Amino acid sequence: MPSIIRGFFSKLLPPNSGLELWLRTNYHKLNSTSLAFQIRDWHSRISCKHCFDRENSASLVSLDHIDRQPKVSFILDLDKATPLEFAKTIHSIANLIGNHWEIICLGESTKFNSLAEDSAEYHSQIKHLLTVEDNLLDQVSGDFVLFCAPGDQFARTLLLRFYGALNSTGEADIYYYNCEYAAPGEKKKKLFFKPGDASPALLLSVNYFSRGIIGREALEKVDFHFSSQKPLLVQEYRLCLELQRENFAFQHLPYVLVSQKELVTSAKAENQAIIVAHLEQQGINGVAAEVEPIGTRFVWPGTEPSIAVVIPTLNNRKLLEPLVDSLLHNSYRNLAITIVDNNSIDPATISYFQEIRNSPRVSVVRYNQEFNYSEAINLGAANSQSDLLLFLNDDMGVSNDFWLEELVRWAARPEIGVVGTKLIRANRTIQHAGIILGLNRFAGHLYLNAPEDYSGLLGSVDWYRNYMALTGACQMVKRDLFEAVGGYDEAYLLAFSDIDFCLKVYEKGYLNLYTPFASLFHYEGVSRGYNTPPADILRGYQRIESYVRAGDPYFAEGLSFQPIPYCQSSSKEKLLKAFEKRKNRYQY
Length: 588
Description:
Elements (H helix, E strand, L loop, with lengths): L2 H10 L5 H14 L2 H14 L24 E6 L5 H12 L6 E6 L2 H8 L9 E4 L14 E5 L4 E2 L3 H12 L4 E8 L8 E3 L20 E3 H6 L10 H14 L4 E11 L8 H13 L6 E5 L2 E5 L7 E7 L3 H12 L6 E7 L5 H10 L5 E5 L6 H10 L5 E5 L3 E3 L4 H9 L4 E9 L5 E3 L2 E3 L5 E3 L9 E2 L2 E2 L4 E2 L7 E5 H6 L12 H11 L3 E12 L11 H17 L20 H15 L3
Parallel strand pairs: 1-2, 1-4, 2-3, 6-9, 12-13, 12-15, 13-14, 17-25
Antiparallel strand pairs: 4-8, 5-9, 6-7, 6-8, 10-11, 15-24, 16-25, 17-18, 19-20, 21-22, 23-25
Helix pairs in contact: 8-9, 16-17
């Protein structure tokens, strides 16, 4: 929202006054239009025009002031390399600020000789290996290794950025960084800004650690061996999965330091196989990769734990009835539905409750007092019995047949806390694809109002991800975990209790997970509009302030805190000032 409008709101319109609510409601409607999205998407793309890190040494700390400058061994697979791609990669490495590197080329001798003939001036730092059936580490002299592909072009500042982090924050096992890449079907390269911390779920969709600088000691600890029979970047993916599984230390360098041909994703069968093996090593049996139109979904057989579906409602038969029918006719049979009715007086809704009163799998719990969303959720949970709890708004619609199985599969995992999914509006735009703390100077939905399969600066909406929080419009969680954290905090009347609940689960050591493969329609605002109690907002600010100051670990440094993020320098400082200013508005 433009600052002039925010200032007008702050000075002349008390929160939730009639005019303020009208303006805010229409502001939301305006921002959900296609034109508003197109403007924000255009701004996002042009803001990053010069993001590839092309700074020279004059703008950075000199190498003369950096103590540790370990050698980095670039491992380059010559398979499918063209002379032009090979030359681009060799020249970009040779042009790095800092000369403590070597290049290890893997491939046939004839191919290496033909490719390397124009790079004679660098031959003292280029080594050729015909095979790597022996331990690759025996053939390299670097303390760190970097696996790359012909055509990769590295920013001149790569080593300088790496050495700066190594000397200032202590040694990690992998240093990874943002990238530029060629997206299928698009003429211009796109940017991928990576999360500031490890996201095990995201790694199932894309190897966002690819081209990372990996410590030799980490490779030795996992006793990792490479083979000439498999593509190098496939083996790098397997290595990164193992390092993540074993909780090695990762550090993000918040710069765009490589331009590469493509991302390494789970779209390829060879990568799917190593992800399947990775999941099986975590104790999951019978894993299979299923290719859906939006991406690769990983499935496995399991038991059918019981589900209690809790749906708060008020005078909403039109949307509630088809939702309940879809649940009762779903192939997942081990579920019961608890409808929490908040003083419905609509004759059609009351008639519907009479019609379903004899259903063995549906119960209606009366909640005859002023609506408190947290109380309604807790009441529904207390009046049900099940292994898993699924909280749903009454304005939801089903978009695929396997959505329940997808949620159950992940919610039953011992390390997973709250599970959520992609929610789309009737016009096929995104209402929810995960919540970022700090977005919109508070907490907001990433990629809000974008097309349903949007891919922006933080990557695709159709990737698995971990988030700090997921909307309460659709949340699944184990009952014992729900009870262990005390359920929903009833001090919140309407808003933010879903985020608070997710944070309580996160603070217990669980990972909250987003899967795009259980997608639902959400007709947001149909039931209760956009009225948000100011007390909820102030309490929410106090709850998330420490997280906002520390930085949401699943967001990326250097981006604005907008639903469609754009490149912005000093974004964290700007966020904290705006966060404090908006918080103070509710302290009256």
